[in-house]
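Hi support team,

I'm filing this because I wasn't sure whether my run with S-adenosylmethionine finished correctly. The job status page said complete, but I'd like someone to confirm that the output block is well-formed before I use it downstream. Pasting the exact inputs I used:
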Amino acid sequence: NKRHNLTSQLWYMYHYAGQDILIHESIDSYGAVMWPAALALCSFLENNRHTVDLEGKEVLELGAGTGLVTIVASLLGAAVTATDLPDVLSNLRANVMRNTRGRCRHTPRMEVLSWGYDLERTHPSSVYRYDYVLAADVVYHHDYLDELLATMKHFCGPDTTLIWANKVRFKTDLTFTDNFTKTFNTSLLVEDGEMKIFMATSRETRQRRNDSL
Ligand SMILES: C[S@@+](CC[C@H](N)C(=O)[O-])C[C@H]1O[C@@H](n2cnc3c(N)ncnc32)[C@H](O)[C@@H]1O
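And here is everything the job wrote out:
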């Protein structure tokens, strides 16, 4: 694959969108190491620019971790907001800035975003509108799967396309997948063993969303 370990075990080199990308991993949290769905999603975005044209698009990444997906989306021309929990943000920011400075038309933004139910107050959907929401390996053993689905639903407006890549490993992952397909109109873009990439759009029409706000 495109992952090359450099002298220290915490630095890895990747190559996407015609650029070398140097990523620092940190061992103190889940989010600071690279997960397989990030690589699958980067390859998909790089190789399917007609299906998912990110040029000039507003993109939100949930659970951005090391920042590789945000970097690749930025290199492909998107205006990206990378989000994650507070303890992940400094490593995320350093990786994103190191690899996008002077290389991208739109400077990526990094923000703390904790998945939850209260997002209409902190991130009103009339203001926070995205063309794409990206998420890689955000489903694994944790207690916030319902909050994650609520967050995806919140940011997936009538004009948004959500792209979720995940290695489906556990029974709880299948339950989430089930709820995900019930919540959104979905199609499976990639299925490679346990690795799946879904594309999803809102079931709510613009009119129904306006009525409920
Ligand atoms: C398994 S890692 C995947 C990281 C990255 N997307 C990748 O594929 O390499 C899951 C990410 O979700 C973030 N995360 C976990 N729980 C979260 C929550 N409740 N709110 C926001 N982010 C969360 C973690 O900090 C971590 O960065």
